[in-house]
């Protein structure tokens, strides 16, 4: 009988998992199990549950979704266990970045920036799928369907959880919020970006641009008529200086630490996207994860100091309210008043810090890349550089740009829109189906990533005509609405679209017009023979090898 009990004990131990022995290796009779064996059984049971969940997440669910997509006529790559197409994507990107874009077709760089999606569309059609780890990623290239996803009228589409979790370490705020909280923050922040409020920031734009112009003039003078310099770091510094002054009312050297930390954070974030899609990996104390969290704490500490200093000055009646931070704090106070003075209704200091992180990163990145690619394009197409300069001199002469003149810049606006079409700051947007939903006649299961390739759609010949891959600002002569071959196509959204359209787009365009105007007044420029045309993505579209340009003083 005792042996039967021992056998029963062993059987139960095996049934729930591998037991942890007491040192003798023998199983205790049923009813006399030690705490160690019970703990071992519980751990084993948890491991079995975890293993079953991982099997479902990494294999069974992806295979079901793949069958569901293929059954409806969609084609795509074959799912590979756990990593999907990430390994192949990394291989293709590494190979693509090893050589620049040929200068005979400089604007045709999609195969360099997004080689996997480019190949998938070529092989499997305009609506096809690849794999981001175990998540199917369906590429949507129809502008009407893209607008339907971005409008998100019924809340069917959400940002991917991975992007939201990791993005919080870089920006936070409106970018990652949803629902009522997003509505509240947007309502509080809207007044700060009103056109009338942006006019007040023009002096900050002009002051920063004047300092850049001064450095370039000194470089030209020292080089006897023509200087060669890399404009990419100069424009990063310029936009960082502008956002420091216009957003926080501080000088660039005070905000430079934030800029450097966020630049490092962006690089690390790209690395994390390739591995942290696996549940739990973002929580492990890896060097990258620890450093990203340390950077986030440091940025928040700097911003908290700036905000608390401003709040103290505001209480003493000392602070100017012409910058974004002052306008945001004032709008937040007004929101309290509108909501019967209940402090719980407004934004907390931590929420304001998150929005300031977004101010700084988006404000700096968007304008820096826009100005950089604009000077590249105008160097490649000097006839448009001449036309833009002629307009600037006609409107402003040698005077600093003013708000009334900026609003009359038609050619410069056309040029900037064409650069945004060919070189959008963000080349791809992603959304996720949180439940089964029909889109364009296809029923997508919950958990599918919808990839909205701005870069592809901005070059779609069906929307833009046979010259979609060429630089021609004239297509915007009658405005954005009529720029497409089909005016109803609506295939232009460099700042997203719908309710979540970038709140700072007017800020970025105003800054770009002021800077470009002041540069064209004083300099002619061309690309250096050493320039290698190599766009690549670090969240936004960067020049991989910088942009050496030759400047000549006019």
TrEMBL record:
The keyword Cell membrane does not apply. GO terms for cellular component: membrane. It is found in: Membrane. Its main location: membrane. One of its GO terms (biological process) is brassinosteroid homeostasis. PROSITE patterns: CYTOCHROME_P450. Its cofactor is heme. Heme binds at residue 502. It comes from the Eukaryota. It holds the Pfam family p450. Keywords: Heme, Iron, Membrane, Metal-binding, Monooxygenase, Oxidoreductase, Transmembrane, Transmembrane helix. InterPro entries: Cyt_P450, Cyt_P450_CS, Cyt_P450_E_grp-I, Cyt_P450_sf, Cytochrome_P450_Monooxygen. One of its GO terms (molecular function) is monooxygenase activity. It is a single-pass membrane protein. PANTHER family: CYTOCHROME P450 FAMILY MEMBER, OS09G0403300 PROTEIN. Belongs to the cytochrome P450 family. This is Cytochrome P450-like. It comes from Oryza sativa subsp. japonica (Rice).
């Amino acid at each position: 009988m005792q042996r039967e009990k021992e056998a029963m004990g062993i059987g139960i131990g095996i049934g729930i998992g591998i037991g942890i022995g007491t040192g003798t290796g023998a199983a205790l009779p049923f009813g006399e199990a030690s705490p160690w064996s019970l703990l071992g059984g519980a751990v084993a049971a948890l491991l079995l549950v975890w293993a079953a969940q991982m099997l479902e997440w990494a294999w069974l669910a992806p295979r079901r979704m793949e069958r569901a997509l293929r059954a409806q006529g969609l084609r795509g790559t074959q799912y590979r266990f756990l990593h999907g197409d990430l390994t192949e994507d990394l291989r293709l990107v590494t190979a693509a970045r090893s050589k620049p874009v040929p200068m005979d077709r400089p604007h045709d760089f999609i195969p360099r920036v997004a080689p996997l999606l480019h190949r998938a569309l070529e092989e499997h059609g305009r609506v096809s799928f690849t794999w981001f780890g175990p998540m199917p990623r369906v590429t949507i290239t129809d502008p009407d369907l893209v607008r339907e996803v971005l409008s998100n009228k019924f809340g069917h589409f959400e940002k991917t959880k991975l992007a939201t979790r990791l993005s919080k370490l870089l920006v936070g705020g409106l970018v990652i919020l949803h629902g009522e909280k997003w509505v509240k923050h947007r309502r509080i922040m809207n007044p700060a970006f009103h056109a009338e409020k942006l006019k007040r920031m023009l002096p900050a734009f002009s002051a920063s641009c004047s300092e850049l112009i001064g450095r370039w003039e000194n470089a030209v003078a020292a080089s006897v008529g023509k200087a060669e310099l890399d404009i990419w770091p100069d424009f990063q510094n310029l936009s960082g200086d502008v956002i420091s002054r216009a957003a926080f009312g501080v000088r660039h050297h005070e905000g430079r630490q934030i800029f450097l930390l966020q630049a490092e954070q962006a690089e690390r974030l790209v690395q994390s996207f390739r591995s942290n899609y696996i549940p739990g990996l973002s929580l492990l104390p890896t060097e990258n994860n620890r450093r990203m969290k340390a950077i986030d704490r440091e940025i928040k500490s700097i911003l908290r100091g700036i905000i608390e200093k401003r709040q103290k000055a505001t209480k003493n009646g000392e602070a100017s309210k012409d910058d974004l931070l002052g306008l945001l704090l004032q709008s937040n106070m007004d929101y309290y008043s509108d909501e019967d003075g209940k402090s719980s209704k407004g934004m907390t200091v931590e929420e304001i810090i998150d929005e300031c992180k977004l101010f700084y990163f988006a404000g700096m990145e968007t304008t820096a890349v826009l100005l950089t690619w604009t000077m590249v394009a105008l160097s490649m197409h000097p006839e448009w550089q001449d036309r833009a300069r002629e307009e600037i001199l006609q409107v402003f002469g040698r005077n600093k740009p003013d708000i009334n003149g900026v609003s009359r810049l038609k050619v410069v606006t056309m040029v900037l829109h064409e650069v945004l079409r060919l070189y959008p700051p963000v080349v791809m947007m992603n959304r996720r189906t949180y439940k089964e939903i029909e889109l364009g006649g296809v029923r997508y299961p919950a958990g599918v990533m919808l990839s909205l390739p701005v870069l592809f759609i901005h070059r779609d010949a069906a929307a833009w005509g046979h010259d979609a891959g060429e630089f021609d600002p004239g297509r915007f002569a009658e405005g954005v609405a009529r720029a497409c071959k089909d005016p109803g196509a609506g295939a232009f959204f460099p700042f997203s679209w719908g309710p979540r359209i970038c709140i700072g787009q007017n800020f970025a365009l105003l800054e770009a017009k002021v800077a470009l105007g002041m540069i064209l007044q004083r300099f002619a420029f061309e690309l250096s023979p050493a320039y290698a045309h190599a766009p690549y993505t670090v969240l936004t579209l960067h020049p991989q090898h910088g942009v050496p340009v030759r400047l000549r003083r006019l």
